[in-house]
């Protein structure tokens, strides 16, 4: 079997695992934070977010978001962004900030500020 065929099979296998993880994470978020899950699903569709990025952000939200995003205060969002800085690679932190800002524009939220991920000097 050629190297290209093996590479293709490995890529398909990895994508299958990522999609299964994606379904589990979405279901878990839907159970814990149904309003946030609905908004996140709309955001992903609107911006065309890829599965890997969706999984990273979902995993982060499940662990660090203390309640529904729309009812979070600016203080809670600032804390969430600080956790994002500490625990997410810059690209996923930027996606988190974009999701928070997109939600503020498209939904009624308790928070009113725009959020941005500070530059990471040593994170990849």
What do you see in this structure?
The longest helix is centred in the N-terminal third of the chain and has 30 residues. The chain has 124 residues and is mostly helical. Helix 1 runs parallel beside helix 3. The protein has 5 helices and no strands. The relative contact order is 0.12. The mean pLDDT is 88.
Let me know the largest β-sheet: none
Total beta-strand segments? 0
The radius of gyration over CA amounts to 16 Å
Elements, N to C (H/E): HHHHH
Number of helices: 5
Q: Helical content, roughly?
A: over 70%
Mean pLDDT: 88
Distance between the termini: 35 Å
Structural class category: mainly alpha
The shape, in one word, is: globular
Low-confidence stretches: none
Q: Kindly estimate the percentage of residues that lie in beta strands according to DSSP.
A: under 5%
Offer a few descriptive terms:
124 residues; mainly alpha; 5 helices
Give a nutshell description of this structure:
The chain has five helices and no strands. The chain has helices at 3-32, 34-47, 51-64, 74-87, 90-106.
Write the SSE topology.
Elements lengths: L2 H30 L1 H14 L3 H14 L9 H14 L2 H17 L18
Helix pairs in contact: 1-2, 1-3, 4-5
């Amino acid at each position: 079997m050629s190297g290209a065929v093996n590479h293709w099979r490995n890529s398909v296998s990895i994508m299958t695992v990522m999609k299964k993880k994606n379904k589990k994470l979405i279901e878990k978020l839907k159970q814990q934070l149904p309003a946030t899950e609905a908004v996140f699903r709309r955001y992903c569709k609107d911006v065309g977010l890829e599965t890997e990025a969706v999984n990273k952000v979902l995993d982060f939200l499940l662990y660090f978001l203390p309640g529904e995003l729309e009812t979070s205060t600016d203080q809670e969002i600032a804390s969430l962004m600080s956790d994002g800085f500490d625990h997410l690679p810059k690209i996923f932190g930027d996606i988190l900030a974009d999701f928070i800002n997109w939600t503020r524009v498209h939904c009624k939220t308790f928070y009113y500020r725009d959020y941005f991920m500070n530059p990471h000097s040593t994170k990849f």
